[in-house]
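Hi support team,

I've been running sequence recovery on a batch of backbones for a student project. Most finish fine, but this one hangs at about 90% for roughly twenty minutes before it completes. I'm not sure whether the input is malformed or the queue is just slow. I've pasted the structure tokens below so you can try to reproduce it. Let me know if you need the job ID as well.

Thanks,
M.K.
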């Protein structure tokens, strides 16, 4: 299986989806059958507990689906616990500066890179025994940091954030970014697009891929053409609602059509 950090080293399109509602044991196989490369698992805006996260990650990884997790905050206990549960990558919210990003790196990485508290032989290293040195190095090698750029301050400092050695990818939080810019939901505005252009340029300059959520296949294709190569296609809630509403509307339309009285043939 290609872990999330491995995916950041690969060129080309990587497609996944958002998980914030459905934690069924079969979710990994469902995503695999749907052709996904990764899942974006959300703990900031969902009701998922850490116990739920642990189960979801095991299901994903057993199905060869890479994982990136948005923790509830940038606090150490949230960062370290998500990683201990097995998250391959983290998307900490509201990343505003290189100083914040470096602090998170220190939380995420074991010595000699960072200061993460050590717990070995648990979920994050697949309960495997091994030497301390090899286990620490292995965890550092597979753990990815993906700063979520969703504030005006984050956009202002994005070049410095992207320049950090242990930043693996950038992620655009488009809704919060539009709000931070004072233009909620105005995704076609010049101000919003200038911010997006700056993030994309930071990614290109420092050879870091960029990810973003797209609501439809057409939007995802457009975003990929604009330089995003991690495409999070919609999410469990919205995909289910869209499929359900389309099917229900189709049933009602067919039944209504069948109920219409047939026109009598005219006399010759």
């Amino acid at each position: 299986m290609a872990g999330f950090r491995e995916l950041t080293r690969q060129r080309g399109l990587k497609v996944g989806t958002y998980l914030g509602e459905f934690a069924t044991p079969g979710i990994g196989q469902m995503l695999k059958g749907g052709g996904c490369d990764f899942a974006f698992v959300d703990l900031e805006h969902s009701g998922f507990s850490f116990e739920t996260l642990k189960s979801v990650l095991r299901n994903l990884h057993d199905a060869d689906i890479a994982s990136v997790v948005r923790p509830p905050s940038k606090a150490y206990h949230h960062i370290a616990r998500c990683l201990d549960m097995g998250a391959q990558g983290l998307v900490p919210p509201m990343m505003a500066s290189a100083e914040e990003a470096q602090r998170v790196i220190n939380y995420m990485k074991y010595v000699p890179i960072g200061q993460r508290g050590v717990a070995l032989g648990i979920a994050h290293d697949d309960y495997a025994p091994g030497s301390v040195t090899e286990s620490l190095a292995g965890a550092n090698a597979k753990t990815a940091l993906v700063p979520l750029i969703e504030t005006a301050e984050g956009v202002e400092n994005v070049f410095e954030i992207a320049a950090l050695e242990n930043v693996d990818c950038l992620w655009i939080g488009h809704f919060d970014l539009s709000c931070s810019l004072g233009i909620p939901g105005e995704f076609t505005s010049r101000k919003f697009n200038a911010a997006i252009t700056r993030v994309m340029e930071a990614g290109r300059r420092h050879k870091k891929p960029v990810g973003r959520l797209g609501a439809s296949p057409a939007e995802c294709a457009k975003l990929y053409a604009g330089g995003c190569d991690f495409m999070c296609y919609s999410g469990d809630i919205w995909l289910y609602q869209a499929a359900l509403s389309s099917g229900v509307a189709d049933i009602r339309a067919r039944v209504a059509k069948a109920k219409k009285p047939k026109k009598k043939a005219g006399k010759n």
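--
Follow-up from support: It reproduced on our side and the slowdown came from queue contention, not your input. The beta strands are 14-19, 38-42, 66-70, 89-90, 144-145, 148-149, 170-172, 210-214, 230-235. No action needed from you.
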